[in-house]
Specification:
The protein has 8 helices and 7 strands, in the order βαβαββαβββααααα. By secondary structure, it is an alpha/beta fold.
Length: 174
């Protein structure tokens, strides 16, 4: 398990390994660890917008990160670029949280326990809303295929309903 201090140290190593400026995106629980929403994570996931994807992925792996680009697995929802969130800590110039809606949809496609916690944490902290997820999902589902998310849209809808059921239970809604 990896804590926040180790994440910060590995981010510094990754910045050095990349050697030039560019956007670096924290994905899912990795960003939530940096925000102190959780104490530890099993793996550190980043998406990179620097240089060649192969070179950036290799640098990430050397520094102990998993290269996780949600767009490699699911179609990204409209406006995803504008929903990335800059990390407030000044030493992390160029460091962003990947669009939380894209990350939530990617997590649901995978669908393990940590993935549901990722979506719930985004809901809890107001980084995503059910209304916006419903709207974006309505646009995305027709674009889902077995090739993009390795499951049919009906299975994805079932996982989404499961997340909403967990959310309603957490906030005490019917």
């Amino acid at each position: 398990m990896i804590g926040r201090a180790e994440l910060v140290a590995r981010l510094r190593d990754l910045r050095s390994a990349l050697g030039r400026p560019g956007r670096l995106y924290l994905v899912g629980r990795t960003g939530q660890l940096l925000e102190s929403w959780c104490d530890r994570v099993r793996s550190l996931e980043v998406a990179l917008d620097v240089g060649s994807a192969d070179r950036a992925a290799a640098a990430a792996a050397r520094c102990g990160f998993v290269y996780e680009a949600p767009g490699d697995v699911i179609p990204l929802p409209r406006g995803h670029e504008g929903r990335s969130r800059p990390v407030a800590d000044p030493p992390h110039l160029g460091l962003f949280h990947f669009d939380p809606y894209s990350v939530t949809f990617r997590a649901l496609a995978r669908g393990d326990e940590d993935d549901y916690r990722t979506g719930l944490a985004f809901l809890r902290h107001g980084w995503v809303t059910v209304a916006e997820m419903d709207e974006l999902l309505g646009e995305l589902l027709p674009r889902f295929t077995r090739e993009t998310i390795a499951q049919d849209p009906a299975e994805f809808r079932r996982k989404y309903r499961g997340l909403l059921q967990m959310w309603r239970a957490e906030i005490g809604a019917p």
